[in-house]
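Entry 14. Ran structure prediction on the chain below.
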Amino acid sequence: MNAPLLEVNDLDVRFHLSERTIHAVNGVTFSVDPGQVVGIVGESACGKSVTSLAIMRLIQEPGRIEGGQVLLHSDNDTVDLLTLSRSAMEHVRGNRISMIFQDPMTSLNPVLTIGYQLMEPLKLHRGLSTDEARAEAIHLLDRVGIPEPEGRLKEYAHQYSGGMRQRVMIAMAVACSPDLLIADEPTTSLDVTIQAQILDLLLELKQDLDTAIIIITHDLGVIAEVAEKVVVMYAGTVVETGPVKAIFSRPQHPYTQALLFSIPPLHASPERLATISGAPPQILAPLTACPFAPRCPQRIARCTEERPRLLDVTASHACACWAVQGHRGA
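Output, structure tokens:
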């Protein structure tokens, strides 16, 4: 088999506050193959965005990356992003790995023109002259569907609509043809029509550039539409991972099953929507048991005594659940 493009192994992230420590990411492990679309899904505060920021080495105090590896592979080399110097990581960030953040309005600088912000990485990473960078910026805006791109280079973020700001963020992210694009909630706060256009644009650019994509979302509909592989997170851990068809048709973990069951049916109007009882835990100590156990209808005694490991269900499908593993004799 070919080596994956990215491997995240046993990643731990903590936030050390004055009176407590938040264990935000706990032993997260997954991989991304070249050209693959991987969806990371889970409810709010489950560690999805923190994981992506850790991959990019953008965790700031009081947060710290306290363990694990983030291995980025190329044809002739493998580097652990967590051990790179700051200058070496700056060369990777925006060049080999790019990120689209949740809110483009706060990610774009309000006092700099869109053209300046687009041209800066082209000069830094690709060594283009000002005229060359301007021509490429016009091409990028046109490529992501911004009308009259030459004139709009002179405008500022507040002069763009929400959907157009997101297109600008995508243009900036793909400016250097990265190997991996991380899209953190790329369709949040956009209306349904614009959401569909943004997702179509991402898939079109993936095909053109052969770029792998990590899409982070709480929307299972987005995952079903665009992803090839799914990573399900809960309480800072990966509870299930596998091909999108397997996850949606044969979910193994009780949390994944509950997530899918909570989606309203398309052709029926139930009197009451399905919910997951209870609330996610505040992760104020290292996990010593299954974090989903208090809410799980399938829990067994071992669930409250020992943290389950992520074990294979099939060659490409893995689940961290003592009940499932017990049924399979693991």
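The two ends are 26 Å apart (CA to CA). Will compare against last week's run tomorrow.
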